[in-house]
Amino acid sequence: MCVDRFDPTPIYQQVAAIIRQRIMKGQLGPRDRLPSESEMVRDHGVARDTARQAVALLREEGWVMTLPQRGSFVADRESWPTQG
């Protein structure tokens, strides 16, 4: 899945969807470190603020936890939103 600049969905939501999909597929498991902002900028061709917004959205949804001075990590499964 790639960022589609012609899709009306905001870019940060697209980046969050890419990471969310990696978590749901098991490519990123609980307590795995998320890619850094710099890696997201490089891999998805987005601005640093866009990467931050994507992580913030995932954190609000319960997929991710951020630890000061350590980074962002996949939350334990119990924190994940229920999938309907």
TrEMBL record:
The keyword Isomerase does not apply. One of its GO terms (biological process) is negative regulation of DNA-templated transcription. Keywords: DNA-binding, Transcription, Transcription regulation. It comes from the Bacteria. Gene3D superfamilies: Winged helix-like DNA-binding domain superfamily/Winged helix DNA-binding domain. SUPFAM superfamilies: Winged helix' DNA-binding domain. The keyword Lyase does not apply. InterPro entries: Bact_HTH_transcr_reg, Tscrpt_reg_HTH_GntR, WH-like_DNA-bd_sf, WH_DNA-bd_sf. Residues 9-77 form the HTH gntR-type domain. GO terms for molecular function: DNA binding; DNA-binding transcription factor activity. PANTHER family: GNTR-FAMILY TRANSCRIPTIONAL REGULATOR (PTHR44846:SF17), MANNOSYL-D-GLYCERATE TRANSPORT/METABOLISM SYSTEM REPRESSOR MNGR-RELATED (PTHR44846). This is GntR family transcriptional regulator.
